[in-house]
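Deliverable D4.2, example record:
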Amino acid sequence: MARYRDSVCKLCRREGEKLFLKGNRCLSTKCSFDRKSYVPGQHGQSRRRRLSNYGLQLREKQKIKRMYGVLEQQFRNYFKKADLMKGETGTNLMQLLERRLDNVVFRLGFAPSHAAARQLVSHRHFLINNKVVNIPSYLVSPGELIQVRDKSRKMDAILDSIRRIKGDLDLSWLEIDKAKMKGTVIAIPDRDQMNIEVNERLVVELYSK
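Output generated by the structure prediction step:
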């Protein structure tokens, strides 16, 4: 399975904002973005040029891809699928990305980052409706139950992540039971229920050319 193997801190610096790709490390003093908030590369510290409309569209697409940890061809496939669905293409695209199993595991708090969630899913640590699913791109549906496998309930990575969950989950389309290490998909999320600040309309404009 292809995946990005270079420093993810460079991705945050390239987009000019924290994408929280390393989970709680991004909130600590170890975060390199706070020390090097300029663009990586030889000329990174020079003044940034004003982006064209195409540049703005491209940067928004790259930011969304990196937040969800998907590669170019995967992202294109999601866009094609979203374009064939009823409703707004941009909203459909974001709903498809939010419904990825690795994203749902991350949103439920069972993993500190998208990358960690993807690895845990691939290593068969989660059940969906009591069946093992090890495909990070699996699209969850309303009514499905996601839970940690019995043999995985003592893993430090999962336990530490769950302990950091404070109060009720701030996502009305998901329901979590911390004590039983499980969560339920209540509904397909509306755009205003997604905790991600991006302008997906720029992506639609980019691919509509």
